[in-house]
Amino acid sequence: MLWERDEVLGTAAAAGEAARAGNGRWMRVTGAVPGMGRTALLDEVVRRQTADGMRVEHARGAPEEAAFPYGLVRRLFTEDIGGVPFATPTGHGEQWLYHRLVTRLARLATERPVLLAVDDLHHADEPSRHWIGYLARRIAELPVLLVTTTCAGYTDLPVFPADTGTSVELRPLSAPAVVRIARAAGLSAQETTTCVEAGAGNPALVRALVADLRDGPFPRSSLAPVRSRYRETINGWIRGLPDPRSRHACLALAVAAEGGTAPGLTDRVTGLCPTRPAPGPPSMGRRLGALLRHPLAREAVLAAAEPEELAALHTRVAQVLAEEGAPATAVAARLLYVDRPGEAWMVRSLEEAADEALRAGRPAESAGYLRHALRGPLAPDRRAGLAMRLGALELPGNVTAGIRWLHTGLELHTDLRERASAASALSAGLVAGRDPDAALRILRQVGRAADDELVHVLQALGALVSSHEAEAWRDAVSALRALAPVAPPTVEPLVCGLITEYEAGAGLCSAAEAVARVERRLGAPVDQRLRTAWLGSAATLLQWADRLEEARALAARCLPSSPVPPDLTDMGLQCLLSVRAEAALWAGEFGRVIDENVAWVELSAGQGVRLPHLAAMVALARSEIGARAEAWEAVAVAGPSGADTSWEWNELGYARARLHEADGDWRSALEGYLACGAGQSARDFVSPIATPWRSGAALALVRLGRREEARELAEEELRHARSWGTGRTIGRALRVHAAALGGRLALESLTEAAELLGSAPAPVELVETLVDLGRARLDAGNGRKGRDTLREAHAVALRLAAQKSGARRLLDLTEEALRRGGARKTNDGQALTAAERRVADLAAAGHTNARISSSLCLTRRTVEMHLTNAYRKLRIARRTQLVAVLAREAGPVSE
Length: 895
What we know:
Helix content is 63%, strand content 4%. By secondary structure, it is mainly alpha-helical. The chain has a five-stranded parallel beta sheet, sandwiched between helices.
């Protein structure tokens, strides 16, 4: 069935009627590109004119026979016409031949009107084309209809007289027509859209797409074993082009159309060809422009190309893009088709593209550009630098590959200072890959050839590496104590920071002393190679000292902004990642902990780095929001610690114990806390500033009925906490001490704990302590004060819940305590009057006071009074908190 060709067939019918009446006519049918249905239309004209009594002489031009004179004429006349030479006559001989052929045709037409149907006239031999033109100029008085088909873009076709015929161009099928074809074939809506877009109204392509999609999913690659009629159709067009230059122009058009870059690039496609294009087919190539906007069509055209052709074309496109200032990623995307980027501008473009992709948060793409740049000819130092950059990008997702590239960079560097920097990066990568022993060997090896200053730098870095291994850490601290008096001023801050970290963990200094040491050195000049390591150490100490905002500010100063990932070949950044995560957890920002760190946990599931501390933070944050199963997944992904004695695995062990506690599995929790304690003790870490395992173990012992053992652990914990001196550690230890004491003796400890935690940035610990204090007061017979305390705990939990992801565990804890204590919740709206509730609802929906006043016909003063009362009753301080409070429960109001 011919779709949307009735008008053309009507024109052919009128011409046929005129020819049968003795008024000869010609008709030329053209198509912008192959596949427009010229042959199908000609066949239909032949069928209809045959039915109307015309004699048909049918022939088709073939490019394989274009060199044989009069080949088409011989095929056109089925009867022997004799005397047609096999060479082109000249002068009078040609005129005599042309006249004789027309006379022969006229004699045939006297018997019955004749239809001469010539398909693909543009492929016919030149003498035959000239004779067709001669005939058209003499057809007026012959009962002959001449119908020819040609492909648009050919300029050497015969000129026909306008008064005896017409030319028609087959237009693409309309979208509604294609939709009807696709639906008639039973295709889905998505498949129909593909037919409309990738078919571009070309009947041959639409038919091919319908057949492909009817057979199953469309093959997405030229290497796919499934047959694609669509691809075969386009490949056939490209292979059928007689001139290699024309074929090249079509390929160049497809290459230029990829990526959607550089508007107007396709208009300059001839400039991308190695030689001047042929006069005809490139015009057809340009007409493919609309079709080639679809990736399926481009893929089909490019499937007909040889790899060398594509490489040459993409190189030329890349050059044009680079000259016009296109984004480096657009240039580099073309260079990826070049096997070896052999010119300097190519490598430079790939490097710039790697930077662009990384700034956009696409490290895998950035790594691809660097990997390709390394295939080019590079000087050793340049290759070393690129290898180091690639290693840093590969490391998070593939530890083995990353470390190999870092090793390559170290081996290629010849300058001693460059080797030291490379050794630092490699050692950080090895630490992230859980191999601190190898990291220390690398640093020592490079340090043997270093001068005194560089030796001190490497020694300080080695001490930072040693913090991941218990025995090595002790030795490193001893070496640092010896180094401290003679360390260069630019190295001394990190030396002091690491010694202070050890002393803080060992209970040898207070928080005030640690902060004083940090503050004295924060403005001091530090060796650039140690800057992030020093700030990581300083941030750790500030966090332990409850100076969370200052610690987070240091992390924000060094860590890149999203979406750029931090460089894990920098040990200081590894430390600052941990500080940022734990500070957010301590501040009750559970959603932030998850958002910023879950990607690192997911990397651990494959071949990427394992960062146990971040896994622990994500697990604890998920537990706080009520996602218990996902919390266990986070710790499971990190895997078992094995023989690893890093502080990070102690953190992960502590998190596992906390999850057992949340599950009510007190025996497993106790085992986990004691194992964490053993790991910390091996590092001389006795303080509760990081992993308060004694507190956890004491609570487990209380639940297991072993109160005496719990009291010993709690008293030891409290002693170390008071030695450190921050509100968080003391308050937390006092709460556990109260649990171990029990009864009325617990009230004094809980009261002191609540006072300390109330002024500390410790909302989680404050809620837990207030709940315990409220229950203790209720048990002591002080119901009113106990319930007030529980409501206070609930208000703090609500503030945390107003943040992203909420604080489900704490809300559940406080609401259960309120129920058991017989207190009415303050967030369910029951204490609000109807007027207060209406005003609060509108405020929560984002309405201003003026708009609420207008909507409810109240004065501004009345609106403000209702809001003030609502804030007081709901125990909140800000308008933004109304959403969480009112949405959580929509209880009745009191009149």
